Inverse folding.
């Protein structure tokens, strides 16, 4: 009788504990925890964080902007900046998700990360990763587990055409890219499309649009809007949680569908002074 081999696999969240120092607390009961982690090229890597004060009580993050900065450990060069996602901000529970697209540009190596908190009054502070008040944690990017991704299409900010320039102002109200091949045009079967948007101090709305036409024109009737999240067909950069917030870093999106052509559009806020630098697109 042939034997049966059973392999056990595990799926569990990576949860990191960070500390926000409150000098008004008399107790100094710093939490224990390991702030280091591993991420893998070719997959989405969600890393959860729980923020506590120096008495191990959870810290409310409501009304605060949190940004993670990633630096190459050996060169000291900043390589990535990401906006932190709230899970339960009232209880200090947050998440950063590293996407396949943004990891494709990073070498397999060791990296340092830090998280900066911008408070409602405009002051900033760093979160600490250990009992010695170090503000940097470490992670390793590992490759070779999954096959390499195909090369992305890179659209620079200068590749977007300004439209809707209405007098008396000469400032365009929106910018539109050219049509890019979608999954259906390339005869791909999975329908997966991935976008990474790079911005600097930008505030405004970003859209992805699809077309089933063989040769779509720029006319809006040839295009339909694609949902970039559960609720909206656009992503709002900046303005959250404060109207004066801007965003510097990378935001990544995925959507599925049998689409012939894809294009991108963005509408800067009226008081926007930043830039949408580039869009990386892959299907």
């Amino acid at each position: 009788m042939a034997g049966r081999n059973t392999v056990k696999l595990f799926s569990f969240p990576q949860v990191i504990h960070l500390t926000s120092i409150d000098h008004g607390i008399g107790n100094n009961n710093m939490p224990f925890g390991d702030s280091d982690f591993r991420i893998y090229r070719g997959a989405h890597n969600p890393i959860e964080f729980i923020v506590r004060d120096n008495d191990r009580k959870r810290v409310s993050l409501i009304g605060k902007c949190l940004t993670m900065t990633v630096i190459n450990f050996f060169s000291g060069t900043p390589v990535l900046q990401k906006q932190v996602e709230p899970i339960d901000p009232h209880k200090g529970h947050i998440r950063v998700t590293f996407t396949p697209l943004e990891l494709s540009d990073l070498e397999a190596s060791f990296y340092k990360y830090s998280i900066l908190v911008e408070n409602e009054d405009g002051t900033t502070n760093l979160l600490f990763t250990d009992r010695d008040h170090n503000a940097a944690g470490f992670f390793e990017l590992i490759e070779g587990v999954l096959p390499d991704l195909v090369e992305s299409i890179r659209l620079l900010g200068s590749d977007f055409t300004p439209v809707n320039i209405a007098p008396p102002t000469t400032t365009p109200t929106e910018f539109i890219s050219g049509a890019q091949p979608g999954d259906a045009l390339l005869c791909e079967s999975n329908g997966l499309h991935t976008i990474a948007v790079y911005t600097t101090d930008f505030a405004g709305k970003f859209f992805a649009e699809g077309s089933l036409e063989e040769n779509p024109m720029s006319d809006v009737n040839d295009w339909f809007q694609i949902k970039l999240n559960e609720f909206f067909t656009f992503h709002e950069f900046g303005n959250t949680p404060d109207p004066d917030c801007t965003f510097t870093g990378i935001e990544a999106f995925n959507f599925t569908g049998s689409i012939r052509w894809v294009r991108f559009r963005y509408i800067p806020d009226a008081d926007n002074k930043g830039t949408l630098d580039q869009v990386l697109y892959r299907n």
Q: What stands out?
A: The first helix runs from residue 100 to 103.
